[in-house]
Design brief:
The protein starts with a helix and ends with a helix. It is built from 6 helices and no strands. Helices cover about 70% and strands about 0% of the residues.
Length: about 120
C-alpha cells in the first residue's frame, strides 16, 4: 500500500537525507542499532519493508526497545489503534512501519519549513 504525498516527499533528495538522519537519530536514541539507516532505499515500499524488519528485530529483543522507539518517534498507542481501524487489512508491523515513516517525515518537514533561531 503506497502513500502518495509521503512517497513524493521522500523522493526529494535533500528531504530524504534529512529523513534518513532523523531515523538514525531516533533508533540510536532508543538504544537500537541504526546501521541499516546508512543504506535505506528511497522507494516507499522497499523502505517500509526494511523498516518492518528492523521493528521485528526490536520487538524480539525481549525488552521494551520497540516501545521506547515508538515513544521517541512519537507514535502513540491511540494513533496505532486509529490507523488500524482505517487499514484493517495490513499487519501490525506494516501499520507501525507506515506510521513511523510518516511521523519521522513529518518531523523533518516541520523542522525544514520552520527552522529554530
Amino acid at each position: 500500500m503506497e502513500r502518495g504525498s509521503e512517497q513524493l516527499q521522500l523522493q526529494q533528495q535533500g528531504l530524504f537525507e534529512l529523513f534518513r538522519l532523523q531515523l538514525k537519530k531516533d533508533f540510536e536514541g532508543a538504544g537500537l542499532d541504526a546501521g541499516f539507516c546508512e543504506h535505506i532505499p528511497q522507494e516507499w515500499s522497499i523502505l517500509k519493508n526494511v523498516l518492518q524488519e528492523q521493528l521485528t528485530r526490536a520487538g524480539k529483543m525481549g525488552g521494551r526497545e520497540l516501545e521506547n522507539l515508538l515513544y521517541r518517534i512519537d507514535v502513540s498507542e491511540e494513533q496505532i489503534k486509529r490507523y488500524s481501524k482505517l487499514n484493517p487489512s495490513i499487519s501490525f508491523l506494516e501499520l507501525v512501519s507506515e506510521l513511523v515513516i510518516k511521523r519521522v517525515l513529518q518531523k523533518v518537514v516541520i523542522r525544514k519549513n520552520f527552522p529554530q533561531k
